[in-house]
């Protein structure tokens, strides 16, 4: 017995909405959110996925970064330096 596989109706509706531009979607029937819904709201930001590793570095390199970021943040500065190096265009 062979059954025809059909697409989930909800998936089809979501796909149709995703294909539409924002200005063609009618949101007139959606009420505005009350002001109290926004009290205490915080803006979300997307964090880059980080991977924890163990890495052996020259002590002088670590000291250099720590001296310039004495209140913390030297690991972020090291990551930024490595990222800049990786993203720098160069002939291969």
The number of helical elements comes to 3
* Proportion of residues in helical segments: 25-40%
Distance between the termini: 58 Å
Secondary-structure element string: HHH
Keywords, separated by commas or semicolons:
elongated, 92 residues, 38% helix, mainly alpha
Task: Please explain how this structure is put together.
This protein is mainly alpha-helical and 92 residues long. The chain has a domain at 55-92. The chain has helices at 9-19, 59-68, 74-87. Helix 2 (59-68) packs across helix 3. The mean pLDDT is 87.
Provide a short characterization of the protein structure.
The chain has 92 residues and is an all-alpha fold. Helix content is 38%, strand content 0%.
Blueprint (SSEs and pairs):
Layout: H1 9-19, H2 59-68, H3 74-87
Helix pairs in contact: 2-3
